[in-house]
Amino acid sequence: MTLHEYEGAGHAFALAGGHNYDQGAADTANTRSLEFLSGHPGRGPAFCRSWVLETEARVRYRSIADHYPG
């Protein structure tokens, strides 16, 4: 497995709407993650798409929860 470091990107840099969001680094990291998962048995394109949808849903939920606590 290859590990990548994203220079200048802070913690949670791929969290859309987050304090440290870095779209360029997030796009690169997400693309690399999808490519990695697509190359492993049981983690094909269908899994990757569901992973992306789940991740996007979590981001939307957190955004809503931040605006309407409790």
Q: How many strands, what sense, and barrel or not for the largest sheet? A: none
**Radius of gyration over all CA atoms, rounded:** 14 Å
What is the beta-strand fraction? under 5%
- Terminal-residue CA separation: 41 Å
Category from helices, strands and their pairing? mainly alpha
- Residue share in helices? 55-70%
Total helix count? 2
Order of helices and strands: HH
User: Average pLDDT, to the nearest integer?
Assistant: 76
Low-confidence stretches are none
Break the fold down into its secondary structure elements and pairings.
Layout: H1 23-38, H2 45-67
Can you put this structure into words, describing what you see?
With about 70 residues, the protein is mostly helical. The chain has a domain at about 40-70. It contains 2 helices and no strands. The protein has helices at about 25-40, 45-65.
